[in-house]
Amino acid sequence: MSDRHEKWFRFRPHPWHGLSTGEDPPGDVDAYIELTPFDVIKYEADKKTGYLRVDRPQRTSATPPTPYGFVPRTWCGSRVAALSPTSLRGDLDPLDICVLTERPVDRTEIILQARVVGGICMIDDGEADDKIIAVMHRDAVYGNATDIGEIPAALIDRLQHYFSTYKLLPGSSSSVMVAGVYGRDHAMKVVEASIADYQEEYGSDSFDPDGS
Fold first, then answer.
1. Domain that residue 162 falls in
2. What is the spatial distance between Cα 186 and Cα 26, in angstroms, rounded to a whole number?
3. Per-residue pLDDT of the chain (212 residues; tens, 9 = 90+)
4. Where are the alpha helices (DSSP H) in the chain?
5. Which helix (H) or strand (E) holds 32?
6. How far apart are the first and last CA of the chain?
């Protein structure tokens, strides 16, 4: 294990740095789930330890429409920002992902295999904060979808509404702008860019689940 990785915990793989991006990225990826549609508390993986930390109680009735988390070993830097119109920079976080499934997922800190079908171009205070949209492997309803056009429009509208309002508080204005929705081809470019940004920032060591 390189010196760069010594700060990450050996006995429990760090969900951002110690898990695989997936079997066949950028089209098929793994998603580490931080939030479910049942959560009224916003959880976020702690960057130092990898354990879920309470970020904040949700102050409105909004809950994420799908299981929501990030793709391991990705990072939103300059390459991701270049794919996002009007963005000044990337948000310097792992790439967010929403995973569609017809079955209720009520647990966090799980890994889902998912196929990328599209994404939402979101800009938060000038930072590229894309939300990849994917379908869970072998899902009975969504599992065969290959592009965002095969997903019900009402569900995509719900995702856009959630991300455009989830930080909005009474009496305050929002710094979030949803700039549009894109299909699988562009989504895979965003995933590829986030992998390259990660490798530049954290190194391109091959994934080793044993940590050796």
1. 3-202
2. 11
3. 455 555 555 678 999 999 999 999 999 999 999 999 999 888 999 999 999 999 888 777 778 999 999 999 999 999 999 999 889 999 999 999 999 999 999 999 999 999 999 999 999 999 999 999 999 999 999 999 999 999 999 999 999 999 988 877 666 677 888 999 999 999 999 999 999 999 999 997 755 555 44
4. 78-82, 153-165, 184-202
5. strand 28-35
6. 6
Strand 28-35 to strand 68-70: parallel, antiparallel, or no bridges (unpaired)?
antiparallel
CA distances from 14 to 10, 151, 181, 208 (A): 8, 32, 31, 12
| Sign of the torsion formed by the C-alpha atoms of 111, 25, 182 and 203 | positive
Tally the domains of the chain: 1
The contacts of residue 175 (CB under 8 Å, 6+ apart) are 124, 125, 167
Tell me the HSE value of 117 on the side-chain side, using a 13 A CA sphere. 23
**For residue 31, is it within any domain?**
yes
Kindly give the pairing relationship between strand 89-90 and strand 127-128: parallel
Measuring CA to CA, which residue among 127, 103, 130 is closest to residue 118? 130
pTM: 0.91
CATH of the domain at 131: 3.90.80.10
Residue 41 lies in a domain: yes
CB proximity list for 95: less than 8 A, separation 6 or greater: 70, 71, 74, 75, 76, 80, 130, 132, 190, 191, 194
